[in-house]
Amino acid sequence: MAEETIFSKIIRKEIPADIVYQDDLVTAFRDINPRAPSHMLIIPNKLIPTVNDIEAEDEATMGRMFTVARKLAEEEGIADDGYRLIMNCNNYGGQEVYHIHMHLLGGRPLGPITVG
Ligand code: 5GP
Questions:
Q1: Residue 82: inside a domain, yes or no?
Q2: Looking at the domain assignment, is residue 1 inside a domain?
Q3: Domains contained in the chain, number
Q4: What is the three-class DSSP state of 24?
Q5: Ligand 1 centroid, distance to 16 Cα (angstroms)
Q6: Among the atoms of ligand 1, which is closest to the Cα of residue 33?
């Protein structure tokens, strides 16, 4: 059984977060340390620690993460200019919170992908 992270408490609204979307499969909220004018995290309500742990039964949830990203980008007014979706996996990928999350970043030119 995977260990819960702070994100489970955000999903259950046990600690404060700026939640911008929630449904039966996913929750989205603003990153506490934004790296761009718009920086949101889209996460499954189910605890999946890393991308390595995604199963076939999670495909609907993974798809929902993308449709919610698209919807939030539209609502945020960043869809046409463009944005970046990122998922970090494990140590080398720079993952800090072991509950998978999709970063949605936009609101300024982000330039080419930079690595460590
Ligand atoms: P990672 O490095 O794991 O891909 O990204 C984790 C992200 O979660 C970071 O961008 C970090 O700022 C964000 N984060 C960590 N703890 C909290 C929190 O308690 N609330 C919110 N809103 N974001 C958090």
A1: yes
A2: no
A3: 1
A4: coil
A5: 13
A6: 12
Q: Please write the tens of the pLDDT for every residue from 20-29.
A: 999 999 999 9
Q: What is the pLDDT of residues 60-85, one digit of tens each?
A: 999 999 999 999 999 999 999 999 99
Q: Name the E strands within the chain.
A: 19-22, 26-30, 38-44, 83-86, 102-106
Q: Would you call 105 helix, strand, or coil by DSSP?
A: strand
Asked if residue 22 is part of any domain, the answer here is: yes
Does residue 1 have a pLDDT over 80?
Answer: no
pTM above 0.85, yes or no: yes
Containing structural domain, residue 37: 6-106
Residues known to be catalytic? 101
**Residue 17 sits in a domain of what CATH number?**
3.30.428.10
Give 60's contacts (C-beta < 8 A, 6+ positions apart).
25
Q: Which residues line ligand 1 (CB under 6 A)?
A: 6, 17, 29, 31-33, 41, 88, 94-97
Give a yes or no: residue 111 inside a domain. no
